[in-house]
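Chapter summary example.
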Amino acid sequence: MKKQLLKVLLVMMISVLVSCQSESTDNSYKTENPNLRRVLVKEVIQSPDYTYVKFKEANDVYWAAVGRNDNIKKGGTYYFDQWMEMNDFKSKALNRTFKTIYFIDHLSDKPFPSPEKVKVEKTGSAHVNKSLVENVGPAKGGITLATLLADTKKYNGKTVIVRGQVVKYTPDVLKMNWLHIQDGTQANGKFDLAITTHDTCKVGDILTFKGKIILNKDFGYGYSYDVLMEDAKLIDRK
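The structure predicted for these 238 residues follows.
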């Protein structure tokens, strides 16, 4: 009886060791994207703008935030490859301070290739990959995005007025709200402008902003922008 019990325990121990080794060495999901991270969802908290998720990655457990996504489920396995780490981040919606949290641009339930593999042109880590807007028309006294993007050096450090439709909005990161606008025009294959502001909006709004143009802005953590309108003021809606 004792021998049989020992055999059972031995088989169980070997199975656990093999399973752990398999999990730790299975990096096949990184074939098309070496920066990909695989995580298991332990907890999900929804807020109006964000989905807060507690991840388990190997032996590490940490919190992350993505744009609100009701499809993220506890117990699911997900993948991401770009993130920005923030310390002592206070969520106003949750009335909670996270000692450390990752802000993630794209979270997928399947492995995905790196931007280089699919030849996606980036304007920053929180990038928009395609033109989504038809002609909006410039604001009075303003310029189109095509005019700006055709000669960015000319406008570097200058304050300009632009008008466009919001195609992406991320609130309350680094004490600013972040958005991307398009106006239906383009130059040099570019059609999108990233903006930081204290004003609020939503995707689909047609807005006019006034702000300073900054080139080659690097916030660290892989978040860099070729062209950015920084600390812009909202001067008109529609």
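To summarize the output: The domain at 32-115 is CATH 2.40.50.140 (OB fold (Dihydrolipoamide Acetyltransferase, E2P)).
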